[in-house]
Every structure is written in structure tokens, then in C-alpha cells.
């Protein structure tokens, strides 16, 4: 698998979304079995563990502010509780937060603010239910990044002098308030965290041209590893369909061996979560429905329809999870905030407005076990 394909894989399988209308879904029903001639031996399969503590919300950065989506009723609101705040100026405590400057554990959001004069960083917590803000950790260096895994936060600090700058990472336990610095032997200064899952930290170099993984303490270095060091990994491989489409098939490589097994054909965007794969099917051209007529009279059709499927990682129990009339766009590409909350996960939907602009303004929040879902709304 070449570097380009690896990067595509990382983007596609990572499970930010946006807002609008409400709808109730229906429970999924069984469809035909998987297209495999032979099911993959599931022995040795490693479920995708994201270390996410369940709560009642999915949190997302949107235009420099933070939003919260209620997974039970789809209600969407700014995390900032001030009714008079426009969430755009520097007085808003959540303005300007980027992907690596906030994390969540349950219904609590942790975020970084830096002193404009000294550059020193402070980690704050915000309870989404009570709107209570607390100072969690004050740092003498420049606190730049925060990541969550289970009940711990991984923090990156940069310290500068007149001649040089250096960075280090440490864990902060939100239950005990204890800190534990990472082993820095395998973490060069130009490395960044892509995601944390399966008790592994996946790192990339500054230009994302090289990936490797370590354990949660920074040790057990695995070169060219995307976090699959102890289980199966999957690839999406392009093929040419009879109607001229480029379609993708999903293959599993068993326990890092050269043996590959076909899991799915004609697969569109997909996400891995715990012991399930959720995916769209890429429809043939003659089965695609028109969702918009552009200003030149051309039809814009949905490549996936409104069906969402789920399958076991070994290719068994492949069935329809839900159907929606919303225009499905894809899954999130933000591996640091995979839009998962307990049994709930998000799917990007949207609509066309005048001028042929596609707005990715809805998040379908679905239950991975029942197929019941809501569509976000204000």
C-alpha cells in the first residue's frame, strides 16, 4: 500500500459536522448477506477503541466556535452560554479554538487559552450541563495541544529560549490530577498526533509524510504503523465499474500478513467504530436520484442514496441500518474528534441552496445498534 493510499485510508476511516432540521428515523431491517464468497476468519480482529467516555453530546468546532449536538433529540447550540455573545469576538471563551486545542470527556469540554503577553497556557474545563468553568492546569510553558483518551488528557507544551525551542507531552489524569510525562525517545520535535485509538498513539511528521505509532507511554515504537500493529488493517482499493465509475472495494489484511480478504464491494464513505463498520454504497449511475437541478439545467444526483449499512469487521451480518430522505454527503475526516458518543455516531448531510451552493449543514446522529436517528436542528 503506497503512502497516498495510506493517507486516504486514514482520512476515510476516521469516524465535524454542522446543523439544522429535526427528523425521527426507523429501525434498520435485514438485507442480503455480504457479497463475500468466503467470510474472513475473525480470530485476531482488533476492535476500534477510541477511548471516548460517553455523554449526552457530540462536540464540534465550527467557524472558530464550539457547538454541542444533543444525541437524544438533535438540538444544536453554541457551547458558550452567554445569550448576548455573537461567538466571534475575543471575549467569547470558545472563539478561535482549533481541532487540537480542545477535547471532551463525557459532558465536559477541556480547552486551552494562552496569555497574549506571556504566552503561557492554561487548561480550562467547561461542564456542558451546568455551564461551570474551572481552571484545570496552569503551565509555565506554551500549552498548545490537548487530546483525550478515556479519563486522561494528553497535553503538549512548548518551551522557548533565546536560541531554541523544545516540546514535550504529558498525561493529565482528570480523576486523580496526577501527571505523567511521555517517553521522548521516539517523539522528534516535528511530530504531531494524528489520533489515539486501540491504546496506541498514531504520530505523523510535520509534512505528514511518515507515520508511526507508540504505546500510550511513548514507548513500543512501531515504524510505518497506523495503529494496526496488533490486529487486522483495512484498505480501500479502486476498481473500474462497467458503467465507467471508479468504485472501491474494502479488503482486510489478516494480522499484518500478506493474505487479503474481500469485505465489501462498491463501498462509499465508511467509518470503523468498536466492532462494526458503517458505510454507504456507491450506486450505479442509473440508480441515482436527482437531488438538485443547477443553474445550467444539469441534474445533480446523489451517489449514495439514503441508505446506511452496517457490517461486522469479518464481513458477516451485512444489513441496512437506516434509511433517510436527507442528502448524504459523507463521514467526518477529523480523526481527533470522530463524532462518536456511546452508541451514537454522526453522518454529514446537507442541501443545495440558490446559486448551486452545497451546504453541509446537518448532522444525522444515529444509534449504531438500533438504526434510530435524529437530524440536528437549532
Helix and strand string, N-terminal first? HEEEEEEEEEEEEEEEEEEEEEEEEEEEEE
Beta strand count: 29
Low-confidence region ranges: 1-45
Supply the helix-strand structural class. mainly beta
Q: In angstroms, what separates the terminal alpha carbons?
A: 43 Å
Count the domains.
Answer: 2
**Main β-sheet, in a few words?**
5 strands, antiparallel
Helix content: under 10%
Number of helices: 1
The radius of gyration over CA amounts to 22 Å
| Approximate shape | globular
Q: Strand percentage, roughly? A: 35-45%
Oligomer: single chain
The averaged pLDDT comes out at 80
Describe it.
The protein has 2 domains: 3-46 and 231-375, no CATH class; 57-181, 6 Propeller (Neuraminidase). The protein is 3% helix and 45% strand. The model is unreliable at 1-45 (pLDDT under 50). With 378 residues, the chain is mostly beta strands. Strands 25, 26, 27, 28 and 29 form a 5-stranded antiparallel beta sheet that branches. It starts with a helix and ends with a strand.
Question: What keywords describe this structure?
Answer:
Neuraminidase, 4-stranded antiparallel β-sheet, globular
Overview in brief:
With 378 residues, this protein is an all-beta fold. It has one helix spanning 3-13; strands at 57-62, 65-70, 76-78, 102-105, 108-114, 121-127, 133-138, 142-149, 152-160, 165-173, 179-181, 191-197, 200-205, 211-215, 222-223, 233-240, 246-253, 260-264, 267-273, 276-281, 290-293, 299-301, 307-311, 319-323, 327-330, 340-341, 344-353, 357-367, 373-375.
Give a topology summary.
Layout: H1 3-13, E1 57-62, E2 65-70, E3 76-78, E4 102-105, E5 108-114, E6 121-127, E7 133-138, E8 142-149, E9 152-160, E10 165-173, E11 179-181, E12 191-197, E13 200-205, E14 211-215, E15 222-223, E16 233-240, E17 246-253, E18 260-264, E19 267-273, E20 276-281, E21 290-293, E22 299-301, E23 307-311, E24 319-323, E25 327-330, E26 340-341, E27 344-353, E28 357-367, E29 373-375
Antiparallel strand pairs: 1-2, 2-3, 4-5, 5-6, 6-7, 8-9, 9-10, 10-11, 12-13, 13-14, 14-15, 16-17, 17-18, 19-20, 20-23, 21-22, 23-24, 25-27, 26-27, 27-28, 28-29
